[in-house]
Design goal:
single chain; alpha+beta
Length: about 160
């Protein structure tokens, strides 16, 4: 039994599928690859800022603890915040720094514990400033460092 060539339609022939696998691979690859690449870039930016605020909080807490007194503690905190922000490609104006002492009275005090918190909002990459999307597509990142002050802090 021989098949008639008339009964075979044109789209059922084996040659009709030639080349479509590569096209499907390219389209599926682009659909899957582009979001994965964006996710890697966005996570890299967020991670860089997370490391930056963690370093800011840690270094500011240490600088305040070893400063000779309250007058130089604020100056050192500003200088370190600017230096770490530049190191991690952050805008120093965007970094919110808070120094808190758990007790009452002046902060920082000799022999007390200080808690330094650094906050920043990370703008996701490639988000256009259209319809306020750049203000919505932000990830808040915060870090806290605790440091004990010397018992003779501020006496020299």
């Amino acid at each position: 039994m021989r098949r008639s060539t008339r009964s075979m339609r044109r789209d059922e022939s084996p040659a009709a599928d030639a080349g479509s696998a590569s096209l499907e691979f390219v389209v599926a690859g682009m659909v899957l690859l582009v979001p994965v690449v964006y996710l890697v870039v966005a996570l890299g930016v967020v991670q860089a800022h997370a490391l930056g605020v963690q370093a800011t909080a840690r270094h500011v807490a240490r600088a305040v603890a070893v400063s000779p007194g309250p007058a130089t503690a604020g100056e050192r905190a500003e200088v370190i915040t600017e230096a770490v922000a530049a190191e991690y490609s952050m805008d120093p104006v965007d970094v919110a720094l808070e120094i808190v002492c758990p007790g009452t009275g002046a902060c920082p005090r000799a022999g007390d514990v200080i808690i330094v918190t650094a906050d920043v909002e990370v703008a996701l990459p490639f988000v256009p400033p259209v319809l306020g999307l750049d203000r919505v597509a932000r990830v808040p990142v915060a870090a806290t460092a605790v440091q004990r002050m010397s018992r003779v802090w501020g006496t020299s």
